[in-house]
Design a protein that fits this description.
The N terminus and C terminus are likely disordered. With 394 residues, the chain is of the alpha+beta class. Helix 3 runs antiparallel to helix 4, helix 4 packs parallel to helix 6 and helix 4 packs across helix 8. A hairpin with a 2-residue loop joins strand 10 and strand 11. Strands 1-5-4 form a three-stranded antiparallel β-sheet, with no helix packed on it. Strands 2-3-6 form a three-stranded antiparallel β-sheet, covered by helices on one side. It is 34% helix and 19% strand. The chain folds into two domains: 132 residues, no CATH class; 145 residues, Four Helix Bundle (Hemerythrin (Met), subunit A), CATH 1.20.120.
């Protein structure tokens, strides 16, 4: 199991006798968690010693699952034994302890659907199994990043044209940072919540400047003698936004309001309990991604209430894309990427584009013509002219 995007410098003992093995058992499987290492012998540095011993830099964790018999059936719908989620749970139990005891903050959890993994079924003496009909000898998974963000001439022109504008805004960077921090749920949730708090305070001040409240009332509302008396984020998106713009996120966009309240709940539970939860359930990376998407939509909705001069001008970020590892059967069917919704170029606030991978178009059979051979048989010749082509543009 390799932590593809969780690179960290780890030290592996040269003498295995000094590296303890930690074991945990359940009713079905004995899980053996060993020291971090690579499938091949690690390269120990001659110039780096720890406590007088050579060390090696590694970025892979090997787990041994020991069981009397594993279900290796390759029948469709048969779950992998053991399931990848169990392997990731055990790996993260190990990594969390190593991180805490070593104070190595660079070590981060591995995530199902992001980090690559590979199961190998071995004999008791750790040799490869012989091929057997109807059974697998290994299986793997993960995702791969395709392409790079595209900076187009349009974007460079926008930079030149808007050099004197107030952009970029601090809260906009917080939104980008929240997305960049995924799949680190805690950090991403805190950053997204901070982005919304900063944004709504900024937006309300702009709205107030256009329609001021009388006699210093606005200053009094936002600068009480104790922070607990100041308006909360929910007050700002609801009551104060209705007063200054005639619209309320709570009343006008109940679905976005629900997402906003869940984001706040996740941030508050992290701050008070140490774990980001919603409704008592830990927030998984995909749920955090959905909350950040919702934060972007909340910003876009409120942004449309502001004078146009204060609205962002953006384009779509084209790439990079995350694409899961395809099975051999899937890879034979996947065609080129296409634009599924939206269009490239300048986007309004909240606009987006989406991409999809269509099925690979069928390969046309070339026309053939048959000619007699001297021995009485026939020779098949491709017809003249160009053969079929496949459009690989995205």
């Amino acid at each position: 199991m390799a932590g593809g995007s969780s690179d960290f410098a780890s030290l592996s003992c040269q003498d295995s006798a000094t590296c303890p093995v930690w074991r945990a058992t359940d009713s079905n499987t004995q899980r053996n968690r060993t020291d971090a290492g690579t499938p091949k012998p690690a390269a120990f540095a001659e110039e780096l010693l720890v406590n007088g011993r050579k060390v090696a830099q590694v970025n892979i964790l090997t787990l041994d699952f020991i069981k009397t018999d594993f279900d290796r059936s390759n029948s469709p719908g048969t779950p992998l034994d053991p399931e990848p989620e169990l392997a990731f749970q055990v790996a993260n139990d190990f990594l969390r302890r190593v991180r805490a005891y070593s104070r190595a903050f660079q070590i981060t959890p591995v995530v199902v659907g992001r980090d690559s993994w590979w199961f190998r079924y071995l004999t008791d003496d750790e040799r490869e199994l012989e091929p057997e009909a109807g059974k697998v000898r290994g299986k793997g998974g993960g995702v791969v990043t395709i392409g790079f963000p595209a900076v187009t001439p349009d974007i460079l022109q926008m930079v030149a044209d808007r050099w004197e504008s107030a952009e970029p805004y601090g809260w906009d960077f917080l939104l980008l940072d929240a997305r960049a921090l995924l799949p680190d749920v805690g950090s991403a949730v805190v950053m997204a919540a901070a982005a919304l708090e900063t944004f709504i305070a900024w937006a309300l001040n702009i709205l107030h400047d256009g329609q001021p409240l009388p006699n210093g009332l606005w200053h009094w509302i936002n600068n009480r003698d104790h922070w607990t008396k100041n308006p909360s984020g929910s007050d700002e998106f609801d009551v104060l936004l209705r007063v200054l713009a005639g619209r309320s996120l709570k009343d006008d966009e109940p679905a976005l309001w629900k997402d906003y309240m869940e984001l706040r709940q996740a941030r508050n539970r992290l701050a008070h309990d140490g774990v980001a939860t919603v409704g008592g359930r830990p927030v998984e990376p995909e749920k955090a991604r959905q909350l950040i998407d919702a934060a972007e939509k909340v910003v876009a909705w409120v942004e449309a209430l502001l004078p146009e001069v204060h609205r962002r001008v953006r384009t779509a970020a084209v790439g990079p894309f995350l694409r899961k590892f395809a099975t051999q059967e899937e890879s034979a069917l996947l065609g080129p990427a296409r634009l599924a919704n939206g269009e490239l170029g300048q986007l309004p606030p909240g606009g987006s584009v989406g991409f999809a991978f269509d099925a690979k178009p069928p390969v046309e059979q070339a026309n053939v013509e048959k000619s007699p051979r001297d021995d009485g048989g026939e020779t098949t010749n491709p017809a003249s002219g160009p053969g079929p082509t496949q459009n690989n543009s995205a």
